[in-house]
Design brief:
The protein is of the alpha/beta class and 309 residues long. The chain has helices at residues 8-17, 23-36, 55-58, 74-90, 149-162, 176-181, 236-245, 286-308; strands spanning 43-47, 66-71, 98-102, 105-109, 114-121, 133-138, 163-174, 186-190, 194-203, 208-217, 225-232, 250-255, 268-274. The longest helix is centred in the last third of the chain and has 23 residues, at 286-308.
């Protein structure tokens, strides 16, 4: 990830800029994937967790008692911790919990369960923990920010060494097809306290998509801030090879928000990877795959309509 990405000011406005991202729907899709593979994880590691939009939803997985949210950007993590405190005071979903904070660690306790949540500043290219996890996840094409094959390989190796033997590694990526066909454009996002000038630059010969941002606060005493975000598209066969080289023995690839097989020209891809060769075969079967697929396609259609009008 570009060191000029996710500065302190961008962390403050990130949720406003990304307010149309349907995190709630993405979480429902994740739950269906876990149901299909008969997974009830007790521990979860989230890579590139950002301002915790998905982290807070992971608490709703009733089997979970430990969550570690990893991100390179300390400003994003600080915003995430701030949101966690606010949610503990005002969110209906956390109303049953007593929440205690110790710096970047939160302890949630209700009559039914306890959840330990830790925000940690680490690079997803190379990470390690003293304990392993039942589930490792990454959302919102975060792994596309690893623009070098060696970086992606290192991330996969770290995930493999951090995953319990019977666990799952689930992540999404923008497909190489989408990266190559993004339209180059410029536009302005107007917030209540800022203007964000957005420019898309595509280098199809390098499979690269760059977003240049210039963020100008509505305060003459503050300068404008500039950031650059870079994503690379990878062919499915490349991702599968790197996963295999990292120790993953079984991988399913889905066209995002469905249970149909993912292709290089799909818009977004989801990967479900396991260390055990036969792990993914222990699932709810073809009929449930059809059911979950149809359910999510309907949800995806309704969500698309919501943001169309």
């Amino acid at each position: 990830m570009d060191q000029q990405s996710y500065t302190t000011y961008f962390a403050e406005i990130y949720d406003d800029v990304m307010k149309n991202v349907p995190y709630k729907y993405w979480f429902r899709y994740l739950k269906d994937i876990l149901k299909f593979y008969k997974q009830q994880p007790e521990s979860v590691l989230e890579l590139a967790s950002g301002t915790s939009n998905m982290t807070l939803k992971l608490i709703d997985l009733q089997s979970v008692n430990r969550i570690t949210a990893l991100d390179l950007s300390e400003p994003m993590l600080s915003k995430a911790a701030e949101k966690m405190e606010f949610a503990a005071e005002s969110s209906n979903s956390l109303s049953d919990f007593t929440v205690k904070r110790d710096e970047m660690n939160f302890n949630l306790e209700s009559k039914e369960r306890k959840v330990d949540l830790e925000f940690t500043a680490e690079n997803m290219k190379n990470f390690s923990f003293n304990t392993k996890f039942d589930l490792i996840v990454s959302f919102f094409d975060s792994l596309n920010y690893l623009t070098d094959v060696d970086q992606l390989q290192s991330c996969f190796e770290s995930a493999a060494s951090s995953l319990n033997k019977d666990g799952l590694f689930i992540f999404d990526m923008n497909s190489i097809g989408r990266i190559k066909t993004i339209e180059e454009k410029s536009f302005v996002i107007e917030g209540d306290s800022y203007e964000c000038f957005w420019e898309d630059i595509v280098k199809p010969e390098e499979d690269l998509w760059q977003v240049k941002l210039k963020i100008c606060p509505d305060n003459d005493a503050l300068p404008c801030f500039e950031e650059s975000h870079n994503e690379r598209g990878y062919k499915i066969k490349t991702v599968l090879r790197l996963l295999k080289n990292s120790g993953f023995r079984a991988v399913d690839v889905y066209n995002a928000f469905s249970f149909s097989k993912g292709k290089n020209n799909s818009d977004r891809l989801y990967f479900a990877a396991a260390l055990e060769k036969n792990k993914l075969q222990n699932n709810e079967g073809q009929l449930k795959k059809v059911y979950y697929g149809a359910k999510n396609r309907i949800d995806y259609f309704l969500v698309s309509l919501k943001y169309l009008f």
